[in-house]
Amino acid sequence: MSPPSMASSPSPSVFTSLLRWLRLKIYQYEVTFALYMLTPTEKFIFNSLVLAFLSLFITAAYIYLPDHVASIYGHVHYYFTADVSMIKEYIPSPSSILQGSSAGPATGALNVVYESIQGAASTAGLDEL
């Protein structure tokens, strides 16, 4: 007597499994946001807005998040070590702000304010401004 043969069904291919998983995720997305009751035009508009907001969010995170994290790290480092050298990298000095500003009527007033602050700081013994 021979051993009973196992009736094995052919396993689905990787492509079929991926396609089935993708269809399930699309179905879950449509049911979660109630897109199944919209017309194709309304679905297109909604999905376009979601894609636009998502791409703007990812772009903003890619551009601004590293500087923000570095700034937070500088502040946390300062809070724990009281070392001002790290925080100076991320906070612009008044002179760099004035140099970056365009020449106009406000520049003269800013220079006067900056010089008076510098004078007050030097008399107070705070030469690092």
According to DSSP, the number of beta strands is: 0
Q: Can you give the helix content as a percent range?
A: over 70%
Query: Can you count the helices?
Result: 5
Structural class: mainly alpha
Measured distance between first and last alpha carbons: 96 Å
Could you describe the largest sheet, including whether it forms a barrel? none
Question: What is the overall silhouette?
Answer: elongated
Helix-strand topology string = HHHHH
Determine Rg (CA atoms, Å).
Answer: 31 Å
Q: What low-confidence regions span 5 or more consecutive residues with pLDDT below 50? A: none
The overall pLDDT average reads 78
The oligomerization state is single chain
Main location: endoplasmic reticulum
GO cellular component, one term: endoplasmic reticulum membrane
Protein name: Serine palmitoyltransferase small subunit A
Pfam families: SPT_ssu-like
